[in-house]
C-alpha cells in the first residue's frame, strides 16, 4: 500500500497525517508578536516514546499536546457517520494504525473485542487473598463490585506493580482457565 497524506483541518492546518500513521509539519511562514517573520520547513514528526498507544506531540495554537496516532489516522481516513466514540484495532496490535486495521465502535464493542481476543483482563478470573483466606471472581468488574476496590488498583496489584490493593493481594488465573473450572476446583 502506498502512503497517502491528508492535511488535517483540526490541527490548525499545519500538519498532515499519513495512511501509515506518520505525521509531518507542513512548511509555513509565521510572524511572531514582535513582528519577526520566520520560515519553518516541512518536517516529519517523531513519535513520543510510550509503553501504551503510540502518540505524537504537536504544537497547535502555541500549545503542545499529545495526540494518539491511531485516532488521527481514523479521523482522517475512516468515515464515522454514526459518531461512534472509540476506535478498535481489528488485529489487537496497538502499534498498527493502518486504516484497514481500524474501525469506529462503541466502548462496549471495544471492550468485548478486547475480552474476546485476550487483550483485556476484564474477562479473566481474578483471585484475592487476605490473611490466608482467598476469593475468586469471574472478572475484574466483579472483583471491583464485590470488594469496592478500584479497577486500576486491582490491576496494579495483580500485575505485581504494587503489593496490595484494598488490603488484599491480587492475581489473575492462569491463561485458559475459566471461572467454571475454578468453581469445580473449589467444590472438589
UniProtKB/TrEMBL annotation:
Chain ranges of the HNH nuclease domain: 67-111
GO MF entry, a single one: endonuclease activity
InterPro entries per the UniProt record, alphabetical: His-Me_finger_sf, HNH_nuc, NUMOD4, WH-like_DNA-bd_sf
Ranges of residues in domain NUMOD4: 3-58
UniProt keyword rRNA-binding present: no
Entries under Gene3D superfamilies matching the protein: 3.90.75.20, Winged helix-like DNA-binding domain superfamily/Winged helix DNA-binding domain
Keywords: Endonuclease, Hydrolase, Nuclease
Protein name, entry field: NUMOD4 motif-containing HNH endonuclease
